[in-house]
Amino acid sequence: MLGTGGGGDVRTGSLAATRAIREYGEVPLVRLADLADDALVVPLSGIGAPTVSHEMIHSEDEPKRVAEEVERLFGRPPSAVMSSEIGGSNGVAPVAWAAQLGLPLLDADGMGRAFPEVQMVSMYVAGLPADLVIMSDVAGNVVTIRPVDGLWSERLARAVCVAAGSHALMADYVLTAAQARGAVIEGTVTRALEIGRATEGAADPLQALQDRLDAVRLITGKLTDVERRTTGGFVRGTATIEGTGADRGRRLTMELQNENLVAIEDGQVRAMVPDLITVVDTETAAAVQTEALRYGQRVTVLAWPCDPLWRTPKGLDTAGPRAFGYELDYVPVEELMTRG
User: Fold this and answer.
1) Looking at the domain that runs over 202-339, which CATH code has it been given?
2) 22, 193, 284, 332 - which has most CB atoms within 10 Å?
3) pTM for the whole thing?
4) pLDDT tens digits for range 74-111
5) CA distance between the termini of the chain
């Protein structure tokens, strides 16, 4: 749900996590307050095009190679794993990686959602130097990058990712617990669990979900057109939903770059990044990733406010609509709905 269409297919991450827990044991969930100041936290995520992740599954050796490189560089092993983005497979697979490494999982992430580019993390917005990226792929390659800033970390990591087949495992912003305080978005693993539990056994899963997220419904209808292409390590495209029932006669178009970025109706923006826009199955309220959108699906589009960090000037400069090339001034989704 928090992946806003991206972060990879949650099913593959769930299968990996279930298998890893069965083989290596349960994974403790810890808070930053539980860690010593000098404890190393390793944010892990898959980088690349979500469509590729269906066929190119992470190997169990990838997180181990990354952890070994962290220990080689810092002179001590990591103390905890953190999800770089609490969305899609990248929100669930860190459970598997933590289990394989015998480490706890930090109840936090770097986005509070999913974003497509490396520098679009809370640590960058907080001003921490983006001076280390470690990547590993299924072929066994390990690449350590020392970028001069966050934008170069994206350019260089994306080039390595494309060379690896548009899919790799990445650790960015390896940081101490002291550095992480105030620079990561805490409590997001707990929030993800609460969102999942809100719909279990609910008489109206969609309404239960909407209430839990405090989200607005942009439209309920049928997918009538989907255009996707994989290029430069991203999935890009558009999706169009024709309204049904009370929304008959309406049409909403979403623009995608791994995640749902902008929702437009009759030339008017209804919601925009960094606020969250998620497509869900109208009956089950299950989230639908961008790579799983298909003609004829009955869906509802929900939108709700992002973490306040992303509404700061640096947050909007990093992941607002203009960061993705849209000539739009950011307007919060709740204000857009009041206007509408």
Assistant:
1) 2.40.390.10
2) 332
3) 0.91
4) 999 999 999 999 998 899 999 999 999 999 999 999 99
5) 24
